[in-house]
Amino acid sequence: MQIKKNIAVSDSGFVFDPTSGESYTLNTVGVEIINLLKAGLHEDEIKHKILEEYEVSASAYDKSFIDFVAMLKNYELVEYAD
Amino acid sequence: MSEKKKFERPVIKKVQTGMTNKFGTRTEFDPITHIDKVPVKELIEKHGSPLYVVSEQTIRSTYQDLYRAFSTRYPKVQMAWSYKTNYLDAVCRVFHQEGSWAEVVSGFEYDKALANGISGEHIIFNGPDKDEAALEKAITKKSLIHIDHFDELYSIIEIANELNITARVAIRINMDTGIFPQWTRFGFNYDNGEAWEVINRIMLQEKLELIGLHAHIGTYIMSALPYGVAASKLANLAASVEKKFGHNVKYIDLGGGFASKNTLKGAYLSGTDTCPSFDEYAEAITSALVRSEIKPEHLPMLILETGRALIDDAGYILGSVIANKRMPDGKRSMIIDVGVNFLFTSFWYEHKITPAQSFSHHTEDTIIYGPLCMNIDIIREHITLPPLKRGDHVVISRIGAYNMTQWMQFINLRPSIVMIDMDGKAHVIRENETLNTVKQNERIPEHLTDINKK
Ligand SMILES: Cc1ncc(COP(=O)(O)O)c(C=O)c1O
Predict the structure, then answer these.
(1) Does ligand 1 lie within 6 Å of residue B85's CB atom?
(2) CA B78, CA B99: separation in Å to the nearest integer?
(3) The complex's ipTM?
């Protein structure tokens, strides 16, 4: 799974999807994860980084990541490499 | 190792352009961490979640505001606390200390008022259901009996004659005040002359004293005008009684019904913006009475049975997040431990629900479900909330009216209720239920004692 190539993410957490014309806002952790995804990091690497940086348990992180990815899918911001 | 940063669930939210936010107001974005200076977290740690909290300070200040609005405009004003709205003894006693009489609608409520130290003469007995035993007690104790129907009138006549005690009675009167719905099922109709006819029958009875006239035009009345209409109609009747019988009723009771600041479901504007103030209600009622045909020296006492507007703001229910879920359509849902069985007013109101801890400004449209395994258990269909995680707390505000009396022991045991006193001290005023609370009234037939035997 990766973020679609043409999606623009600003540092302040603003996301623009040129295909649909929709824009989105992200909170801090959201920006960080989306940027890591865009940089091509694997899920496990992202998890490792976040757990190191933030005060959060692995299970709490996992739950929130599943939910976050579900939203990215729902907004059609991700694609799956074949 | 350096300290780690505070984690907040990652959130992405679509930017809605050109649309006003219909899901809530900015105030819901400030956390409520304390109630009357007591930390919410501490209350939950000590007394569990969910937890009802009542603010004595808010009860007293709201009462004083209402009383001031009327007493500065009219010479004789008396409040009667509407027991059904919240009949926890501690709550009733705060109102009684402030000077309220009691307004009850059943034998059970009547006895509760007596047990709270209210004398019979200061109990207003309303409602369609007063059995013979209750009427006998109320007549003996000189209570103010508000007659709802002819069957009751004739029961009272019989009992009063038998006891040879004069019953102090008023009649409940329904009428057109320009609002819909008209609550015509209670009392006698003004507009078709029925109320006047009943008054005439009462005046002929030796053992009945017509002491007052009563109307309760409905609840959550969002305009002051209908109260002016109701007050004039009752004053007209009082003036007619004065003229025909030379008798002056001692009081006019306009019931309850003032809107609380809650927001009705589907309302576009918040209740804090749309509800009349106490001053507006007071102006409408008192000016109608003062302008009426009643002679100034005989102006009756004005009684109010205000319920929700006096207690809603003083009540809170604290809850905790059980889970977050993503619906198949992408909508976020959150399950909390407060269900409609403890917050049945969520069927009418869009209750204000606020996180009890700080959070970032990122929010999502959310549906809030209660914990019951029942499809109807929805606390808010749309609300804008920041990310909350399992175990976080929420504060639901303005729930003091009706929830602590119409709650249901259903699926879960009912939680504790605490009152925070004027000095910020929390007192348990009703213990949480236990399995035994439920079981103690159950009886098991002999043949079912052993479940291994058939
Ligand atoms: C006779 C009577 N008085 C007073 C009240 C209190 O009404 P509210 O809570 O709308 O002020 C009620 C409530 O239904 C009532 O029936």
Answers:
(1) yes
(2) 8
(3) 0.93
Return the DSSP state at A11. Answer: T
pTM: 0.88
Contact flag B10-A72 (C-beta cutoff 8 Å) = no
pLDDT tens digit sequence for B243-268: 999 999 999 999 999 999 999 888 87
Give the whole-angstrom CA distance, residue B375 versus residue B370.
10
From chain B, pick out residues whose CB is under 8 angstroms from the CB of A54: 4-7
Which residue ranges form the domains of chain B, and what is each CATH number?
34-53+314-434 (2.40.37.10), 56-312 (3.20.20.10)
Distance of CA B433 from the midpoint of ligand 1 (Å): 28
How many A-B residue pairs are in contact by the CB < 8 A criterion? 82
Interface test with B, best of A3, A9, A27, A48 (most B CBs within 10 A): A27
pLDDT (tens digit per residue) in A11-55: 888 899 888 888 998 999 999 999 999 888 999 999 999 999 999
Beta-carbon separation of A74 and B330 below 8 A: yes
- Tell me the backbone φ, ψ of residue B12, rounded to 5 degrees: -125, 135
Q: What percent of chain B has pLDDT over 90?
A: 85
**B295 pLDDT higher than 50:** yes
Q: Which of B11, B330, B389 sits opposite A26 (nearest CB)?
A: B11
In angstroms, the CA B30 to CA B354 distance is 7
pLDDT score at B25? 45
CA-closest residue to ligand 1 atom 5: B256
CB contact under 8 Å between B8 and A24, yes or no, is no
Residue pair B224/B283 in contact by the 8 Å Cβ criterion: yes
Judge if the upstream peptide bond of residue B50 is cis by omega within 30 degrees of 0.
yes
Assign a CATH topology to domain A2-79. Arc Repressor Mutant, subunit A (1.10.10)
Q: Which residues of A touch B362 (CB under 8 A)?
A: 25-27, 30
Interface of A with B (CB under 8 A): 15, 22-30, 32-34, 50, 52-56, 60-61, 63-65, 67-68, 70-72, 74-75, 77
In terms of Cα–Cα distance, which of B120, B100, B73 is closest to B290? B73
Least confident of B5-19, B84-98, B158-172, B342-356: B5-19
Amino acid at B278: F
* Averaged pLDDT of chain B: 94
pLDDT at residue number A82: 60
Question: Contact, B11 vs A68, CB < 8 A?
Answer: yes
Between CA B81 and CA B95 the distance in angstroms is: 7
* Binary contact (A55, B4; C-beta < 8 A): yes
Q: Which phi and psi (to 5°) does residue B343 adopt?
A: -145, 65
